[in-house]
Design a protein that fits this description.
Layout lengths: L1 H7 L18 H15 L4 E11 L4 E12 L2 E6 L2 E5 L3 E6 L4 E6 L20 E11 L2 E10 L6 E9 L5 E8 L4 E11 L19 E4 L2
Parallel strand pairs: 6-12
Antiparallel strand pairs: 1-2, 1-11, 2-3, 3-4, 4-5, 5-6, 7-8, 8-9, 9-10, 10-11
Protein name: Outer membrane lipoprotein carrier protein LolA
Pfam families: LolA
Keywords: Lipoprotein, Signal
Length: about 220
């Protein structure tokens, strides 16, 4: 389950932002990225139903899993593969029903390699980006934009975004790693401004009776 946690935190971000200066910017790509970013940042919250596909050519393996995530600012609630992860910006609860356990840990953005709420602003620091053309996805025309990290030690050498020409929404993206593995994320359903309140991003123990609580703080 731990590997799912690591992979799925990439749902809305993909890689650690590199600390680099003088990033090369393609004006055409930047205009599209700015429009996409503005669209999502204007929302109080959003919910995404997704499918993640992991491909490993060397192992001749391919695996897909589906789930959903609700995001509001730096808070999120993720459900996938029998696991739930709740982050209220200060504390993270990882709920594993099959194992009968919930772990509690501090949320430290400086120590997190991946966070789930930065995909829409990822390009703004530490990345080159270029317009790579136009394709069709599900019958819809999409812009294709490639992001390349300035930090050459980054194990992800490219992130390819598919952005709707119609409404600037992010339709899918794909991470390319140096070891040959590929991680694809397809958005199946998008709900803008779903109802959220103070309880949405907090672990309610009464709803998870019988689980062992492991506090790692």
């Amino acid at each position: 389950m731990k590997r799912y946690f690591s992979f799925l935190l990439a749902l809305l971000t993909v890689v650690q932002v590199a600390q680099a200066q003088n990033v090369q910017k393609d004006p055409q790509a930047e205009k599209i990225l700015d429009a996409m970013s503005k669209k999502y940042q204007a929302m109080n919250a959003f919910k995404v139903g997704f499918t993640q596909t992991i491909e490993s050519p060397s192992a001749k393996a391919k695996e897909s899993i589906s789930g959903d995530i609700t995001v509001s600012g730096n808070k999120y609630r993720l459900a996938v593969a029998g696991q739930e992860i709740i982050n209220n910006g200060a504390t993270i609860w990882t709920i594993m029903k099959k194992e009968g356990e919930v772990t509690i840990s501090d949320n430290d953005p400086d120590e997190q390699e991946l966070t789930p709420n930065q995909i829409y602003s990822l390009y703004k620091k530490g990345y080159r980006y270029v317009y790579a053309g136009e394709e069709k996805e599900g019958g819809e025309a999409v812009h294709v934009i490639d992001l390349t990290p300035e930090d050459r030690s980054n194990q992800v050498f490219k992130v390819r975004l598919h952005i709707s020409k119609k409404d600037n929404s992010l339709k899918s993206w794909k991470m390319f790693r140096k070891n040959g593995n590929r991680y694809s994320y397809k958005i199946n359903k998008f709900t803008p401004n779903p109802p959220v309140d103070a309880n949405t991003f907090v672990f309610n123990r009464t709803k998870y009776k019988g689980l062992k609580v492991v506090d790692l703080r």
